[in-house]
Amino acid sequence: MTEIVLFGVSGSPYVRTAQMGLEEKQAPYRFEAMALGASKSPDYLARNPFGRIPLIEIGDFRLYETQAILRYLDAAFPQPALQPPDPQAIGRMNQIIGINDWYLFPKVNAVITFNRIVGPVLLRTTPDEAAIAAALPMARTCIGELERLLGDQAFLAGDSLTLADLMVAPQLDFLQATPEGKALLAGTALSAWLGRMNERPSMQRTRRPGALQGG
């Protein structure tokens, strides 16, 4: 098979999700690490006109959008399967992915982790405390609902790893590195699930750079 090349910025939770998909499938790939802001360069915009990461190239085939990348990998490398056969489990998996993409990332992580970790470390900005406070109600809603959906299952959509786990784990791992995220997740079943996820080789091999580990 032609080499898979993954383009992205180290530390991005969505890039980490794509890396985890490749790691779970044990698919050989090369990571093309990009500098912050490089996704807006003319060269990259020729690959993805929306200027977002991650993106994969396999020969002359290019694919962007994290969900699309994961679903491609699950089709191209059938084992282990990352999508359940049961219709209700499929629905639950997709619902959780929607929570991640519509609420957890844009309204929680993009505010709290950016202001607490990404901005201060990479851009030398000062945290916007008002923005962080405004994001906390949605953070509570996301964590509460994800914990309810997890219940006593081993994984978010059932008893086996799915795309939902790969989408959410990097987000919550990053959020937990902030004081707000640590407090919200403390003692929850979701925190225990994240601990189990962090034991997986796919999480251990795709850790954020040290500067973005937070405290």
Structure, described:
The protein is α+β, with helices and mostly antiparallel strands. The protein folds into two domains: 4-76, Glutaredoxin (3-Layer(aba) Sandwich), CATH 3.40.30.10; 87-200, Glutathione S-transferase Yfyf (Class Pi), Chain A, domain 2 (Up-down Bundle), CATH 1.20.1050. Helix content is 56%, strand content 8%. It contains nine helices and four strands; from the N terminus they run E-H-E-H-E-E-H-H-H-H-H-H-H. It has helices spanning 13-25, 42-45, 66-76, 87-123, 129-150, 163-175, 179-185, 189-198, 201-204; strands spanning 4-8, 29-33, 55-58, 61-64. The protein has a four-stranded mixed sheet with strand order 2-1-3-4, with helices on one face. A hairpin with a 2-residue loop joins strand 3 and strand 4. The protein is globular and about 45 Å long. The protein starts with a strand and ends in an 11-residue tail after the last helix. The model has no long low-confidence stretch (mean pLDDT 96).
